[in-house]
UniProtKB/TrEMBL annotation:
Name of the protein in its database record: HxlR family transcriptional regulator
Protein's UniProt keywords contain Transcription regulation: yes
Pfam families in alphabetical order: HxlR
Domain of life: Bacteria
Keywords attached to this entry: DNA-binding, Transcription, Transcription regulation
Signal peptide: none
Record-annotated HTH hxlR-type domain positions: 13-111
Length: 121
């Protein structure tokens, strides 16, 4: 009987690049915020007050390029732009929620490990 076990997954440079882009300083917050509802640029800045205009622009462009966010030009006067989570991006919501839950439940343990490390230095 031939061995039918799947090959173990190996992270490639392409995987690492995508993860770096999704897990950067602002992208998870942008995705999480857009999963709630579509937002205009300034609404995103208000929802994520620590982000700079340049950082938010960079994150949105990167997320749009990766197919996670859709930029929609609204036919209003003046013309406005709205950002929406794409169908592909919405597949991350469960993962984002689980990651936030994990950080919430393990943060005390991580903080204790940090303190122990800092004391040993």
């Amino acid at each position: 009987m031939p061995d039918t076990a799947p090959e173990p997954l190996r992270m490639t440079a392409e995987h690492r690049e995508l993860l770096d882009q999704l897990l950067d300083k602002w992208s998870l917050q942008v995705l999480d915020t857009l999963c709630e509802r579509p937002r205009r640029f300034n609404e995103l800045r208000q929802a994520i007050p620590a982000v700079t205009q340049k950082s938010l622009t960079t994150a949105l462009r990167r997320l749009e390029r990766n197919g996670m966010v859709t930029r929609v030009v609204l036919s209003t006067r003046p013309v406005a732009v709205e950002y929406r989570i794409s169908p592909l991006g919405s597949t991350l919501q469960d993962l984002i929620d689980r990651l936030y839950h994990w950080t919430t439940t393990t943060l005390p343990e991580v903080e204790a490990a940090r303190e122990a490390y800092d004391r040993s230095e």
